[in-house]
Amino acid sequence: MIEIESVHKSFGKLEVLKGINLTVNKGEVVSIIGGSGSGKSTLLTCINGLEPINSGKIKIDGTEVHAKSTDLNKLRQKIGIVFQQWNAFPHLTVLENVMLAPRKVLGMAKSDAEAIAVKNLTHVGLAEKLSVYPNRMSGGQQQRMAIARALAMSPKYMLFDEVTSALDPMLVGEVLDTLKMLAEEGMTMICVTHEMAFARDVSDRVAFFHQGVMAEIGTPEQLFGAPQNPETQKFLASIR
Amino acid sequence: MFKYSFQWNQALKALPQMLDGALVTMQIALLSMAIGLVVAIILTLFRLSGSRLLRGFAVAWVEIARNTPALFQIYMAHFGLGSFGIHLSPFTSLLAGIAFNNAGYLAENFRGALKAIPDTQARAGRSLGMTSLQAFRLIVVPQMLRIAFLPITNQMVWAILMTSLGVTVGMNTDLAGVTQALNARTFRTFEFFALAAVIYYLIAKVVTLAARLIASRLFRY
Amino acid sequence: MFDTSLSWGDIVFLAQGAGMTLAVTAVSVIAGTILGIFCGVIRVQLGPYWSIPLTFVLDIFRSVPLLIQLVLANAFQSIAKLGWPPFTTSCVVLSLYTAAYCTEIVRGGIDAVPLTTRRAGRSLGLSWWQDMRFIVAPLATRVSLPSWIGLTLGVMKDSALVLWLGLIELLRASQILVTRLQEPLFILLICGAIYFLISFPIARLGGYLEKRWSPND
């Protein structure tokens, strides 16, 4: 369970998160939508401790992320994150990209790590690309590799940060299909996204962020069908 | 056109001697690169460190190496240290001067290479549970080596060319030194130095080519 | 303050040496740059294939130690009975050396101008020369200037080697004083400081320009 309690976060003078409260239960898929600068991406990097927070609490299975005593490296093994820019490691093949963390972080034997990597790459449809270097692949393929790379650590939670925003429109579908598949398998996920159809079809709940505040949250039917907050209404009207 | 009879035979007869000199040249260049690389890594770490003293030391080294002539740096090793009662042989002063120069330029290259790798790379490593040291070693350094590889080979060629400066402090065993000694004996300046030029050129080309070959094997992405 | 026998006359002597360094550098950089721009444009116009001979010749100047080039040129002018003084020989060699590097910088600068930009210029009816003059030159200069500043400083430092032909430039002047006064460290430090004071501010300017011009090119 991910518990976010009145989290505030500033970059210098700019307050990007103004008291966020959100609880994500096991097996739940929560999508976060909102305009740019609404703080939705920042929240994800705070959840896995890549960014410090100014006040509030984030707890993963009861462990406070930003407590001094927390071993962040250990905690991050539980939380996979995939970024908008997929951040493939260009100097490693696809297989090596996925094997690296299981070997070096979990200390797995090479053969075990390879088996896990092959399994996850097959899962996202990249079984044919094992020995290819990332820059020889399309953005969609690299993004799926990044998902496999995160999955290889057997995380309990997955965070997706606008994973389709930097892709050509033609390639968005293959990545969204991968996310859908994970959701159906029962993975607990938080997806920051601009793909409204995806948010509606896959999420259990959808949250709308506006200027650092979670303006509204509800089931897809509620949020898309009968939005209460005027900002939500404005946002949804603007993207149609 | 010229009232001068070129005597290439004499130069060609001295070729074995000059090739021996070329070996010494390569030896100094390789040694100076090895020392330079190690020092450059240390200087780069100093620059990244929190201590102002270490950072200042590294910056001073880099700026002096880059903003004064290589020959000056060799003179400092050869004549300057004399003030402390340290008298280095031509070989040692030449090696010290070039290694000092290499370290400064290489450290600057490493800094540039580090800057060229986006922060998001280390971040991606951290988000997979790596420690910052692991992310640096497994993700940043390999990419940095690729970016810095071409500048490193350029510096190697520079080091070879710089070894010729040893003759000004009395070096007489490297290619330039041997050539100058032969010249002093025979006064066939043009012939001997033309042959030396050809040898230097060939060494430089072989090194560049070898580096390209190594790079294509090493960096397949 | 300092226990030195360095006299006012010696300092003037050093300053004259520095003057010689600057003179050799200025002549060589100006001549080398003009020649380099010329060769660079030719290289781009001919394309990589037809410019192989030119590239090969210029590459020699970058692959043979400058000291050897100086000795060879001096021997050559004496054989050919050209009667060049060391200053002339030094400037000729350093100019060719500069031109060899400058050609690459110019080529890089011109290549950095997108073909579409050039086509846009030509499609407005500009002639080749006008396109070069008003479109390519300003853009290429921006790209090339930092490297060119680096080259100028490199030539300034490398000009120390002309001491081998007997020119009394800054380093040679220092060496003469060292021999006479037997204060190697002190005098060499002054010499190094002079080089540094000439080089460092200009190097910083180059770095600044590079930083300022690169992100929004």
Low-confidence stretches of chain B are none
Biggest sheet architecture of chain B? none
Q: Which superfamily, in CATH terms, is the homologous superfamily of the domain at 22-168 in chain C?
A: MetI-like
H/E series of chain B, N to C?
Answer: HHHHHHHHH
CATH-level-2 architecture of the domain at 22-168 in chain C? Orthogonal Bundle
As a whole number of angstroms, the C-alpha radius of gyration of chain C is 21 Å
Number of strands of chain C: 0
Quaternary structure of the protein: heterotrimer
Task: Report the sheet-strand fraction of chain B.
Answer: under 5%
Q: Percentage of helical residues of chain C?
A: over 70%
What is the typical, i.e. mean, pLDDT of chain B?
92
Greatest chain-chain contact: B-C, 41 and 40 residues
Number of helices of chain B: 9
What is the CA–CA distance across the termini of chain C? 52 Å
Low-confidence stretches of chain C: none
Remind me, CATH topology of the domain at 22-168 in chain C?
A: MetI-like fold
How many domain units of chain B?
Answer: 1
Q: Please report the number of helical segments of chain C.
A: 8
Transmembrane segments (chain B): 22-46, 147-172, 192-215
Domain ABC transmembrane type-1 (chain B): 22-211
Subcellular location (chain B): Cell inner membrane; Cell membrane
Membrane topology (chain B): Multi-pass membrane protein
